[in-house]
Design brief:
The protein has four helices and five strands, in the order E-H-E-H-E-H-E-E-H. With about 130 residues, it is an alpha/beta fold.
Length: about 130
């Protein structure tokens, strides 16, 4: 049975810099973070744990994997890390992300996205 999702985030990215920066921000919010580099790793994490949000690097979530992600946890807020090629959520019709974020990361913007998704702070960000 998956463990509780209370303030646990799953980050799906094969980019160490993206992963490190997002881990820092989420941990500063008081969240626990799990990570996956591939669809297979994400499937294992999703089978073992429940998450309050998923942040996925659009480059790591190839088009053929998006159906998997959309069906895996339809009620969990999804935030996508995108690049200049992506203009908006319509670029990801099967996923319906609640927000798109772009590097270089603006921590305040990511924080606003998490707040808008209903994910509260457990501790103040210093």
């Amino acid at each position: 049975m998956p463990e509780s999702h209370a303030q646990k985030a799953l980050i799906i990215s094969d980019d160490d810099v993206v992963l490190d920066l997002l881990c820092i921000l989420l941990r500063r919010r008081g969240m626990t973070v799990s990570s996956a580099e591939t669809k297979a790793e994400a499937a294992v994490e999703l089978a073992e744990k429940q998450f309050c949000c998923i942040i996925a690097d659009a480059r790591a979530v190839a088009p053929e994997s998006r159906a998997f992600l959309a069906g895996a946890v339809p009620a969990v807020p999804l935030i996508l890390v995108v690049d200049a090629r992506h203009s908006g959520p319509d670029d990801f019709p099967r996923l319906s992300p609640c927000a798109l974020i772009r590097p270089p990361f603006d921590f305040a913007e990511i924080d606003r996205c998490l707040n808008a998704a209903g994910i509260p702070h457990l501790q103040e960000i210093a």
